[in-house]
Amino acid sequence: MKFFTTKAFFALFFSAVVLLSACQPSDSEMNKNPKMAPSTPEVAELTATITDDAFVVDGAWARVGMQGGMSAAYFTISNGLDQDDVLLGATSSVAQATEVHETYDAGEGMMGMRERESLPIAANSLTEFRQGGLHVMFLRLTEELSEGDEVQFTLEFENAGDVTVTAPVRMR
User: Domains in the chain, ordered, with CATH?
Assistant: First the structure.
């Protein structure tokens, strides 16, 4: 019985490490701010611009992931319209579950992640999905995602409808 308990503990511990590693901030982000605040829609730094009179998802990429494991996708949403929108969810055929997540400061130097049921996208704004912040999480991958592959997923918006995104797979 003791062997099973130890084995189960290590299996649970390893699963938690793998789950959080896909959502952890990059080294440079941790150096800038080791106690990152709870994620809210981020205004992208000069990496993207608002596209006038358009709703655009741009700059997408996804992490490498093993079949049965997990991965994450990052991108920028440019809402150049005069109307707010709401991201309601995400779907993909490469995973058994696809969810919109945010990374947050769980206290005592620990980071956590949680699913966002919906995410407001303000009019005339940029929302950045990045490592250590908002991201789309692919859980229980149905296939391996290798560097150089492409992954497709669909973002479901209240007003813009379904937006299909194709993202190259890479290490970082």
Answer: 2-170 (2.60.40.1890)
Give the integer Cα–Cα distance in Å for 24 and 130.
Answer: 10
Question: Taking all residues of the chain, what is their mean pLDDT, rounded to a whole number?
Answer: 81
For the record, the structure tokens of 106 come out as 């769980």
Strands 119-121 and 134-141: unpaired
The Cα 71–Cα 96 span in angstroms is 12
Query: In angstroms, how far is CA 54 from the centroid of its own chain?
Result: 23
Task: Give the pLDDT confidence of 103-162 residue by residue, as tens digits.
Answer: 999 999 999 999 999 999 999 999 999 999 999 999 999 999 999 999 999 999 999 999
- Give the span between the Cα atoms of 98 and 165, in whole angstroms: 13
Measured distance CA(89)–CA(86) in Å, rounded: 9
Mean pLDDT of 61-80: 97
